[in-house]
Design brief:
The protein is of the alpha/beta class. It has ten helices and eight strands. The chain has one domain: SGNH hydrolase (Rossmann fold), CATH 3.40.50.
Length: 233
Amino acid sequence: MRFMFVGDSMTIGRAGDYTWRYRMWQHLNRSFGGPYKIVGPRSELYDATADAAVSTDYADPDFPAHARRHLAGWGEGWLHMAPLIADAVRTARADVLLVSLGLIDLGFYTSSVQTAQNVRAFVDAARTANPHVRAVLLPVIPNVRALTDAPFAVECARFNELLAKTVADVDSDTAPLLLASTPDSYDIDTDTYDGTHPGPSGEHKLAGAFADAMHQAWGLGDAYEARDRATRR
């Protein structure tokens, strides 16, 4: 089975991060119980000095190159990924998409309604490349801007409602969709380093949201166990 991580700055990570992708790789190694591969057209982290995704400085230098693959970008959202996903799925022969997008769209580019339309465009495009592709979609999670910008907080809540409706509307027996749960007790003061981007504990919680959704709905891998969350280097 071939997994592709799709996301924005919270998924690509910056130079020096472990990333939740790394935590998921560790989890899959322990629990998947069969052959799998992590795929995607990119592998780098975001480098703030260069303002570009050019860094290979992962916090664990032993994170293997073959497991660093992704389709994520700093400042990229559903708007940006919808035109890219068909080619990425086709080229990488992805079977399962683990998608964390939406915050950047709502913050800078599109309304909740427009963003939900881009979710549909993304799913439709992915299915043109693989009619049986599965996807797990994460809602917009707590962030610092939503605490101080009331209209933005309303848009985040509205988008999450529309995302749940979209998943229900376009779910398919041949290409199933899952809506992951917002991580329990996600705390922007302790689970992020700046109110938005996950630190080590937040990385574990994001990986756990995807892992638990796949385990509960599809029987893929185990639940994200306490010993995973305790590995917070």
